[in-house]
Amino acid sequence: MDSSALDDRIFEAARTGNAVELAALLDSHPEKLNLRAPPYEFTLLHAGASHLAVVDLLLERGLDVNAREKGDNTYAMHWAAAAGELEVVRRLADAGGDVVGHGDDHQLDVIGWATSWEGCDDDRHRAVADFLVSRGARHHIFSAIAMNLADEVRNLVASDPSALNRRMSRNENHQLALHFAVGMNRPEMVSLLIELGADPLGVDGSGYTAAMYATSPTIDLPVMERIGAMTSAELTSALRGDRQPQIRTTDLLAALALDDLETAERLWGENPGTKSDNRSEGLLHLTSKRGDSRAIQWLLRHGSDPNAKWAHWDSDVTPLHLAVLGGHRDAVIALLAAGADPRIHDSKHDSDAAGWAEFFGRTELADLLRAG
C-alpha cells in the first residue's frame, strides 16, 4: 500500500483500539510512530486516547505524553478525560502527563474537558475529575458548576469574586458562569450563583442573557425572580418620577415566567408589541424554547405572530423551530393550533421544524409536524 493508505490504516487501528494491529504496523514501520494526522496534526496518542491498550503500547514505544495537537492545542489527556476514561487518564498521568493542561483553545484545562460538555455528568466523568484533583489539578468555576459542587463554587467566589464574571472561550460564545449553569441544566447552581451576586442581565458574546439558554420554565426561575424584582423597582421609580418606565424583553419574559399576569399586562400596555420595538420581539420564541405553555398562550392571545422569524444566535428561526429544540410537544401543539406554518425554513440550515425534529431524534414531534 502507498504511504497515505498506510498512515490511514495506522490511525484507524489507534482510533478503534486495535492494539494488536497497531503494534504489527509499527513493528514494520517504526518511523511512523510520530505520525500526525491532518488537518490538526493529531498524534496516535490523541487518536487512541479512549483505549488503554493503545495508550500503553504508544507510551512504551516512547511517544510524548505531553504532545499537543494544533486544533484545540490539547494533550491526549484532554480527550481521555472528555471520554471519561479514568484508567487512561491515570496511565497518562503516571507517565508524566500534565494533569492541569492549561492552554487549550477552550480555556477549560483537562478538568474542564472531563466535566463541561453535554453528557459529562455521570459517575465516570466525576471519577476522572476527582482523580485529577488528587493529582494536583484544581476546579475552576465552570467545572465546579458542572459537577454541582456548591461548596467549591462558594470557595472560588469567596477567594476571587471575579470568578462570577469569568468568561468561557469564543468557542462557547464567551458565556458567563450563569449562562453555563442554565445551559447545563444545573438549577441548584443557578440559585447559588444568583445568591452569590451573579448578574441576571449579564450577556454573552452575542449580547444574550442567561434566559436565552433555558429550555425549561423552571431552570432559571431564580434569575426570573431577580429580574422581576428589578422590574418592580423600575415601575415604582417611573411612577414616582412621572416618567415612562424603561422596559426590555427580559422584563416581560420574567413577568410571564413568574405568572405575574398583572405586571405582564401593565408591561404590554407600556409596549404594545410592535415589531419596531425590540422590547417584545422574540418573546414567543423564547417562551417556546422554554416550553412555557402559559406564557405561550398569553402571548398568542395578545397577538404575537406564531410565524415570525427571530435571530436565535446565527440563524433566523420561528417559534416552532425553538419548541422542537427544547423538545416541547405542548408548545408545538399550541403553536400549530394558532396557525404556525411548519413548512417555514430557518436561515442557516434551510430546514423546516420537522427537519429539526428529525435531526434531534424527536420522531414524535416530526410526525406531529408532518401531519400539521
Topology diagram in text:
Layout: H1 3-16, H2 19-28, H3 44-47, H4 52-60, H5 76-82, H6 86-94, H7 109-115, H8 123-134, H9 141-146, H10 150-159, H11 177-183, H12 187-196, H13 221-240, H14 249-257, H15 261-270, H16 283-290, H17 293-301, E1 310-312, E2 315-317, H18 319-326, H19 329-337, H20 353-359, H21 363-371
Antiparallel strand pairs: 1-2
Q: What does the model show?
A:
This protein is mainly α. It has a domain at 282-289 and 305-372: Ankyrin repeat-containing domain (Serine Threonine Protein Phosphatase 5, Tetratricopeptide repeat). The chain is built from 21 helices and 2 strands. The chain has helices at residues 3-16, 19-28, 44-47, 52-60, 76-82, 86-94, 109-115, 123-134, 141-146, 150-159, 177-183, 187-196, 221-240, 249-257, 261-270, 283-290, 293-301, 319-326, 329-337, 353-359, 363-371, and strands at residues 310-312, 315-317. The chain has a two-stranded antiparallel ribbon. It starts with a helix and ends with a helix. The relative contact order is 0.05. Mean pLDDT is 95; it is low at 272-279.
